[in-house]
Amino acid sequence: MDGRFPFSYRVACLLALMAVVVIIDFSRHGAQASKYREYGFILIAGMTGAVVGFVNDWMTCSISPDYFIIGKGLEPGPDLRMRAGKLGLQAGLSAGIIGGAVCLFASVNKVPFSAARMRRLLAGLWMPLLGAALLGLGLPAVAGRLDPFHFSAQLGSMLTDERISRLQEVWWRHTGLYGGMIIGLGALILVQRGSRAR
Fold this sequence. Notes:
Blueprint: H1 7-29, H2 35-63, H3 65-71, H4 80-107, H5 115-123, H6 126-143, H7 151-155, H8 161-197
């Protein structure tokens, strides 16, 4: 035991807290209750992020295992790709939940969260997904040769130039993924606010 609260326990606690709030909301507002929709959107955003995170890390681990061994502290082994995918799933779930909550807070006013508004938000999830995909794929091509954190100097005694180059590529891909998601999330919020103003 390393003393850390396991990720699965944290997810279970979050779900339990959401369930309690939903029950209280139903007991207070009956048919007008809307927390279940709000939390439903947040969980869908989280699950979407989890899938993206798993696929991204599972795939990029084949490009640079060193990124996950040196950069993420995973032990080398035959199941490294699956463990990298699991790490990506956890990070993606967390990012998706946070992004969903931020989007909900920024784009919803104080009136109950209607089914129509939830459908509009769900329909707009393609924006952060597209932003993540485009920047995740494009940033390594544009900035892949840049080395702002001096990986070459720090890892030159451990890795060959080719392995350092692959590590940088994966680092830029992850940076682009998160950056694109944030840009897409901002676009989604602006669109939702614009539709609310009309």
